[in-house]
């Protein structure tokens, strides 16, 4: 749950833009940042839990970390293009490259941080896995499955309901 809460707070207070849902974050951010940077911030927010998942997986087992890294990297390619193409159209190839690199570095930084932290303090590994899993679950529900929000105006209710259902299923799975 801590991962869900952490990414929810970042999602709420860091200005960013989604292709499907538009602007999210404080009103001042929309005035200060260009649309391309808002899209880049959305990808950076999305990449933080992915990087942590790679790092925690690597701390658990290097082969698992490599497999997790490959799986996440495969889906990062279209995601990077989604940021780089609009950036290149508005600011040229150099700007697009810088934005794509910055969004990718957030994932790399979290992967290294997670691997070092949870290898050094292996007793915290289950907490790190839960945190990364919760963060990834939030990103999956909130960012990657936008269709579930079409009929409901309160995305918090939908996300909370989905995560509550997920927790209930985990409980039932472990209880029986």
Structural features, described:
The protein is built from 6 helices and 2 strands. The chain is mainly alpha-helical. The protein has one domain. It has a two-stranded antiparallel ribbon with strand order 1-2. The mean pLDDT is 77. Pfam families: Zip. It is found in: Membrane. The chain crosses the membrane at residues 109-138. One of its GO terms (molecular function) is zinc ion transmembrane transporter activity.
Helix content: over 70%
User: In one word, what is the shape?
Assistant: globular
Q: Give the tally of structural domains.
A: 1
**Strands of the biggest beta sheet: in what spatial order?**
1-2
| Order of SSEs | HEEHHHHH
Strand content: under 5%
**Largest pleated sheet:** 2 strands, antiparallel
The radius of gyration over CA amounts to 17 Å
Count of individual helical segments? 6
- Stretches where pLDDT falls below 50 for ≥5 residues? none
Q: What structural class do helix, strand and pairing data support? A: mainly alpha
Distance N to C terminus: 22 Å
What's the average pLDDT? 77
Total DSSP E strands: 2
Provide the fold topology:
Blueprint: H1 2-13, E1 16-18, E2 22-24, H2 27-32, H3 35-60, H4 62-120, H5 125-144, H6 155-175
Antiparallel strand pairs: 1-2
Helix pairs in contact: 1-5, 3-4, 3-5, 5-6
């Amino acid at each position: 749950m801590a991962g869900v809460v952490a990414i929810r707070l970042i999602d709420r207070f860091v200005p960013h833009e989604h292709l499907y849902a538009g602007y999210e974050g404080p009103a001042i951010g929309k005035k200060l940042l260009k649309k391309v940077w808002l899209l880049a911030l959305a990808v950076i927010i999305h990449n933080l839990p992915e990087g942590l998942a790679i790092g925690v997986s690597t701390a658990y087992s290097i082969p698992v970390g490599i497999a997790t890294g490959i799986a996440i990297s495969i889906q990062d390619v279209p995601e990077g293009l989604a940021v780089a193409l609009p950036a290149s159209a508005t600011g040229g190839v150099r700007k697009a490259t810088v934005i794509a690199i910055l969004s990718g570095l957030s994932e790399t930084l979290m992967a290294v941080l997670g691997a070092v932290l949870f290898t050094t303090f292996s007793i915290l590994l289950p907490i790190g896995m839960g945190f990364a899993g919760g963060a990834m679950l939030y990103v999956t529900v909130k960012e990657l499955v936008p269709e579930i929000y079409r009929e409901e105006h309160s995305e918090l209710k939908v996300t909370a309901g989905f995560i509550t259902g997920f927790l209930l299923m985990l409980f039932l799975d472990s209880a029986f």
